[in-house]
Amino acid sequence: MPSRLKLLKSLEIDAYQLRNISENPDPNGQTDWSIIESQVSTCKACQLHKGRNNPVFGDGDMSSDWFFIGEAPGKDEDLQGKPFVGRAGRLLTEVIFSMGLSREEVFIANILKCRPPDNRDPKPGEVAKCFPYLEKQIELVKPKVIVAVGRIAAHSLLGTDLPMGQLRGKIHDFGNNNIPTLVIYHPAYLLRSPSKKRKVWEDLQLVENILDNDS
Ligand code: URA
Q1: Domain total for the chain?
Q2: Ligand 1 pocket, CB under 6 A
């Protein structure tokens, strides 16, 4: 059993099941995207839908090698319906740029599609309900690398509660396809501790080596 499911089971939380959209006959997957986006736009699986202005589906290149995953939308993201558009988001854009990429060349989403009140941490039940959307997005994008942005995203993705110091600086793997997964400091933390930006740069080099060896 994948480690995330084990963790949810140990918390006695049922993993939420998406309606099966993989039976969709469209060979280029475009229809899958519109189905999942429409499911997210009307989702009432947890209480967070009550306070949202907009769900934040995610955006970017739907066939990128890179899939960045943050925690949850904040105030700006909830208002605009786009991930990482506030102050921390601008820093994430710089991090992406420092790798020679633009935001449009990667895919960005969050563990949760809706903003938790007062930016509190996601609750395990909310993660369990929302996670299948993200899993489907990962399945459709087929990234070569996942970047978990911050501790909370890493915990949900990797089914662990290890501290950041033990998560960053190495390659993990996600899901049945063992997608190489890197954990980096969240840009909101980097805004408070700019000296840690160097560590993010070092961590991203680990992934660039994977992509270089792959091509
Ligand atoms: N922080 C996140 O983790 N995600 C966002 O989209 C914005 C801020």
Answers
A1: 1
A2: 70-74, 77, 83-84, 86, 88-89, 110, 149
